Amino acid sequence: MKLFLFIITSVLAVFAINAAELPQNDQQIHMGVASCAASMCHGSIISREGSNILQSEYIIWSRKDVHSQAYMTLLSDESKKIANKLGFDNAATAGICLDCHSDNVAPKNQGDRFQISDGVGCESCHGGSENYLSSHTNSKQSHKTNIANGLYPTDDPQKRAQLCLSCHLGNKDKHASHDIMGAGHPRLSFELDTFGILQPLHYVVDADYKRRKWSGDSYTNWIYGQLEANRETLKMIETNLVNSNSLFPELSLFDCYACHHEMSDLKWSAIKGDGYKPGAVRLNDGNFKMLIAMAANTPLLTPLHQNLSLLITSLNDKEKLSVVIANLKDDIQKVQTLIVNKTRSERKLSAKLILHKILSIGANGEFSDYIAAEQAVMAIDLLVDYTNLQKSYKKDTAELYKLVIDPEKYNAVLFAKKLREIHNRNVLKG
User: Fold this and answer.
1) CA-closest candidate to residue 412, choices 273, 227, 315, 229
2) What helix, strand, coil percent values describe the chain, rounded to 5?
3) Where does residue 204 fall: left (phi above 0), alpha (psi -120 to 50 degrees), or beta otherwise?
4) Phi and psi dihedrals of 135, rounded to 5?
5) Rounded CA gap, 230 and 173, in Å?
6) Which of 148, 163, 353, 358 has the fewest beta carbons closer than 10 A?
7) Nearest to residue 23, comparing CAs of 138, 114, 112, 94?
8) pLDDT digits over 131-186, tens only?
9) Cα separation of 340 and 342, whole Å?
């Protein structure tokens, strides 16, 4: 009996490990969107009563979610031009494009109804359904068992962040390189909670959902999104700067607007150049600045700030850079341990402290780079809403969005001035 339990536990453990793999790498058979689209499954025109799911998930995805059009984007004239510049015959058949514009799993993992043209479909996010397609419809089966059978845990904010960021930021295996962006691909911009809200939900976070799955909030989503963005950025620096023998560094890791500006527009300043000499190409540190804000009012702030400064000054020393990256990964884990899993009242207080720190950093002119300013605005909007300050700052957040709506017209001086105004008012309010 003990041996039997040991075998069962071991098998479930293997499935759990596989489930932790991103869907593209899960080695399960991906059965195809058509396998989920029947009217009695997830393809109902209207939401069905008496079910713990909407059953209209396919309709919402196919009609309203931009992910359903991800593959079709590769057929556009613009995509054809990008592919031509990169030397590809067709963007719709190039693996580097399909990796993020479709469910690009290996042919051996494609089921009979699988179509690459489905784009970013059900199994792109939920994992190959080979082992859970039939069993997950059983209302008596636990969510944990479905995950053990290969369902990717998208309700877990950390796993969701890893999944979304694998395309919207990149990871060590795939990302929109400087070559791709140089050919015309848009710059990637992402924040987990904000971008999640922008897409139509195909689930309802009701009492049943909270009982069966995770029941967190926007603040926690933002925290995990930032933590994972920092981790993935460090991994990409490791892959492309530490472990690469290329003559030139991967420039997509650096701030786009450090180079892409008029020669008469002198970008360097003492604040912006903190750690950099004039003329140096700066790392894209938007998420790093959010990490600093998250560590505000904790013992981690000083060592974190020191290690981030060392990261900047170690870019030309691979051995030193490798050590600094390891230290920063450790810092990130410490930040996570310190600020997650708090009570609701503790999260509210923590959110206010982080908001205050972001405003303080901005008031000091440290969001002079557009990408950092963009991250700051999304964070401020979310934190203001989460801390019930939207009435006091609704107009302010609207004005901040206007200041970052067009990167070509971004004015760091006006942005700092606006944040200084908000910060001073925030201080006066105590």
Assistant:
1) 273
2) 60, 0, 40
3) beta
4) -80, -25
5) 16
6) 353
7) 114
8) 999 888 887 888 899 999 999 999 999 999 999 999 999 998 899 999 999 999 99
9) 6
